[in-house]
Amino acid sequence: MPPLRPAYPDSSSAPAPRASRRSRAEAASLLQDYDEARRGGSSQRAAAEEAGVPRGTLRHWSDRRRALDLPPQVAAFLETPVGLAWLHRLVLAAVFVMTLRGPEGIRLVCEFLELSGLADVVGASFGSIQKLTLQMQEQVAAFGAEQREVLGQSMPPKPITVCEDETFHPQTCLVAIEPASNFILLERYVERRDAETWNTAMEEALQGLPVQVMQSTSDQGKALLRHARDAEAHHSPDLFHPQHDLSKATALALARRVRQAAEDYEKAVRDRERLIAKREVYREEQHGPGRPPDFAGRIERARQATDVAQLKIDEALADQDACREAIAGLSTDYHCYRLADGFAQSAEQVEALLQARFAVIDEVAERAGLAQKPLQMIDKARRVTADMVATIGFVHTEIAVRLAGLDIPPALRAEVATRLVPGLCLQRVAARGKLAEERRAITETAELLLAPLRAPEHPFQRLDAEATEQVDGTARICAELFQRSSSCVEGRNGQLALFHHGLHRLTETKLAALTAVHNFHTRRPDGTTPADRFFETQHDDLFSRLLERVPRLARPARPRSMRPYREAMRRES
Q: What string of DSSP letters covers 190-211?
């Protein structure tokens, strides 16, 4: 069989290559130039020649614009370069907020575009938005990785505390957060949650970061305890878990005791009222000879039974209040500085306070006759106090070491130790208080401690700028050393649960994007992100980077014929 001949033996007979399709932004710019030329008095032919675009193409673009189901002014604006940039920002903001800041899905984005009328100028189908969402997730995850690497190179070395925990989707997800800045160090799916897995995951998470984990705050999970030992870090127990165990061990039994005492009281009252009613009935009737019933004695004994039942109610309520106060008092006592006056509490003092609280709980448990399992839960919570006391000693030791490194006079160093650090600690405690009265009282105590340092005549005010910055930075670090809660991780686990509930599955890219959004986009009232606080420097804006990197939006799918545009033009005429 002879070889096939080429369709065009020479290049002169081959058709000219088709011009590449113009981008949407380029088309909008050319159409804008065409409109300006037409408004200046140029003919269609002259305006098309000036723009360098076939006249039919420009007329097609104009007809397509007039066919949009939007007000003419809006349609004209959206077909300009400025309008396209605004449209790009608006749609990206909707996708970003609904899918990365909130747990909503793609279908809500599609509905938003349909209801707003933007579906006429941008693809609003599920497939189009899904493609855009995946592109955004990839860009957000890449931004987080890039910024982390760049900022880590210029980050000053520092020791840190980490709060660690696991959550399940049902895949096991390890989460570790630096609590002072709320920066997520680790958020990763793994096959297991043993100590070896934690060690490997944290080692990889800290690569490129000049930090050293000196303290780990978590529950009493065996893997996390061993992980802290392997990392040679102090383990600070989460106060919530022993308090939860104590409440779980005592609340139900004490409530049942109060309820039973109330039922006994109501029964005693009914018995007494029944005897009084019988006495009245007996008095109204006529009776023969014989001794009448001893209604007075019976009623008196019923009254005494009522009084006894009331006493039992009072005792049960008092025990319930005492147990609640003792459990809540663990939070009040477990501080390096007294909340009432800011005086330092040694480990021995804190241990005595905690033992007194448990003594009250033991007395109540004995009077309530708790079963064996609740008593075991109380003992489990009691064992955690050893780590709590050790944490107090660890924090005081670390504070002393850091303050000893300050190049200031000893008298001023003492002022920092007894006023500045306690005042900053109490400010942190006040910010987390539940009740307004509690926050106000602790804030007033903190102000009393800090006020003398702000006086113009105080030696602290005569330090130079460099020394002042060193003292303030060291005091802030000392105030953040005491970490008794991993609530930042628990809150993050709750957020991830909402995303998982809505999607039923979080991919690795989606999880990395959520981590980057938390670290580089969420802001506190002072305007700082977790990354700003952790790296101690500002970073690039995440959303601005998305506007640059995510491709421009495509038009919605349309039939190839001009029939829809012609029909729309016919309706207008």
A: ES--SHHHHHHHHHHHTTT--E
Residue 14 reports pLDDT greater than 70: no
CA–CA distance, 113 with 94 (Å, rounded to integer): 9
DSSP state at residue 164: E
Contacts of 479 (CB under 8 A, 6+ apart): 421, 424, 425, 427, 428
Nearest to 342 by CA among 217, 479, 468: 479
Listed in sequence order, the residues at least 6 apart from 437 whose beta carbon sits closer than 8 Å to its beta carbon are none
What 3-state DSSP class applies to 512?
helix
3-state secondary structure of 547: helix
* Whole-number Cα distances in Å, 221 to 217, 242, 443: 11, 13, 35
Query: What are 150-184's pLDDT values in tens digits?
Result: 999 999 899 999 999 999 988 899 999 999 999 99
104 has a pLDDT exceeding 90: no
Backbone angles phi, psi at 540, to 5 degrees: -65, 155
Q: How many CB atoms lie within 10 A of CB 416?
A: 22
**Whether the predicted pLDDT of 19 surpasses 50:** no
Kindly report the length of the chain: 573
pLDDT at 572: 55
Contact 182, 532 (CB under 8 A): no
- DSSP state letter for 487: H
CA distances, 377 to each of 240, 320, 372 (Å) = 14, 17, 9
Nearest residue to 423 (alpha-carbon basis) of 395, 442, 402? 442
Alpha helices in 81-221 (DSSP H): 81-96, 106-116, 126-154, 195-205
Q: Is 455 exposed, middle or buried (0-12, 13-18, 19+ CB in 10 A)?
A: exposed
| Structure token pair of residue 196 | 């070896």
Tokens of 16: 């000219």
Query: Cα(368)–Cα(260) distance, rounded to whole angstroms?
Result: 12
Provide the 10 A C-beta neighbour count for residue 554: 12
Query: Model confidence at 8, in pLDDT bands (50, 70, 90)?
Result: very low
3-class DSSP assignment, residue 441: helix
Q: How far apart are CA 274 and CA 461, in angstroms?
A: 80
The C-alpha atoms of residue 556 and residue 118 are separated, in whole angstroms, by: 10
Distance CA 493, CA 164 (A): 11
Q: Give SS3 for 213.
A: strand
Which of the four pLDDT bands, split at 50, 70 and 90, describes residue 567? low
Three-state DSSP string of 336-405: CECCCCCCECCHHHHHHHHHHHHHHHHHHHHHHCCCHHHHHHHHHHHHHHHHHHHHHHHHHHHHHHHHHC
Angle CA 318–322–323, to nearest 5: 120
* Measured distance CA(189)–CA(404) in Å, rounded: 42
Strand partners for 167 = 173
**Angle formed by the axes of helices 295-333 and 240-284, to 10°?**
170
What DSSP character marks residue 124?
-
